[in-house]
Every structure is written in structure tokens, then in C-alpha cells.
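explain this chain.
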Amino acid sequence: MKNHLLAILLALSTIHNAFAEEPTTMEFINAVPFISIEEHIKVTKKTVAAIQFTDSDKWMMTGTGFLVQGKRNTILVITCLHVIAGALNQKKTLHVGLDTKNGYKRFPVLLAYADPVNDIAILSISSDKSKKSDMPDNSYFGSEAFDVNNEYIVEGRGVLIPGYPLALGMEEGQNHPVVRHAMVAQYTGKDYFLLDGLVSRGNSGSPVIALKGMTGRLIGMVNGFENENINLYDESGQLISMLPYNSGLTRCVTMKEIQKAIDKAKY
């Protein structure tokens, strides 16, 4: 087994050397995003929460949100506006499910700011109904993790996407998100970028964490995937239907735009 691992590392090193005149050890580590990925996942899983509301006494999930530290040591929940729009239109009270020192609990949240252009919603946890002793401990993104200058959005860089695709991970009052791995596929300097990696319904609002060596940076948020169509024809060759399907390219809004929304939030 050790010999196989050594052979793989030597092969990767050879490939890396072909593209770098003077490679360093740190450059090599950064080129292999799976190194220490288990430690990244342990941390990032604690930063997400399922956005929920009740319907006929049954908890329904609308998407994913992630926790960031706001002003005055408050905790904000970031998600996509389309994730909560339907529930808000129905006058539903939104909640987030979080792991706390006292077990899994659901907290009501209020809309603090909405950016319909970039599909961003900033939610604040209702302080009048939430005890500070119940709040999660050190399980949110601090400002030091924000990539507000888009420096970490590098094509080819590996990223983690924790969330709740197909409502998986929140069954029976539990909080165990699904963590997916992807790669930055395209960034043209605009307010969004593309990932090469599958996401599903429920992943909207998932944070995107760039992997670089032993550190990670919050670079954006998933807000959908690019559709492609399967054309169906009848016996005469006439087009009768176009069925959309997931192309495997995921669209994300940058952390720079999310930070602007956070700055405008009132809570």
C-alpha cells in the first residue's frame, strides 16, 4: 500500500514539475486539494443549517443556509432569496436547524436584507425567542475567512460544498449535511463564477469553501446550476418536448457581493 501511495505522489510531482519551473513544497500541496480534506469537512459541516418552515405540523425544507458572524457578535444566516421567497409569500415563519450544546434545535429567523439581483437573502436569528446558551459555539464563518476580494476564486482550485441536497441530512430532527467536492471551472471577474461539480435541489444557499493547503476561504454561495436540454422527437422527426437536466456546471455568487449585502442588512 505504501509503495502504491509513493508511486502516486511521485507521478503527481512529475506532472507538477512539468508546469512549474521552480516548484515548491507548498505549491505542490496546494495543487492537491484532497490533502487534509477530512479536517476541512469537520469544520465546514458545522457552519450550515437547513432552512425550514412548518406545513400542517410537518417540517418542510426549502434549502441550505450558512452562518456568519455579524455586528455585535450576532450570528447571521446567508441563503438565496429564491430559497425563502415561497415561504415568505405564504406568510410562513422561517427557521434554521442548528446543533447546540443542548442538542438539535430550530430557531426562528427574520429577513434582514434581500438582494434580488444577486439572489441573496440575509437572515437574522430572532433574539427574543433564542437563548444564548442554546446557540452554536464557534460554528460560523468569521470575517477573517471571507474572500471579499475574490483572490481565492482560481480556476482549477478545489472547493467544498456542504448542504442538504434533496433534503438529505435533516431527517428526524438531525443535522448531518452532505459535503460535495467540486472545482472552480470559470471566473471572468464578474459577480459570479462557475464550478465543475454536481449540485441538486436543496443545495441552493450552500457555502463554497476554497481549499488551499491547510486553510480554506469562503468564496461564495451556490444559487443554481446550468440547465441543458434533452430533445424528444416523434416518429416524423418533429420536436415534441425539451427536458431540462443538470449539466454539472454550478453557478455561484461571489463573497464580495454577499459582503455588500451583509453590510446593508438591518438587524
Summary: Residues 8-12, 14-20 have pLDDT under 50 and may be disordered.
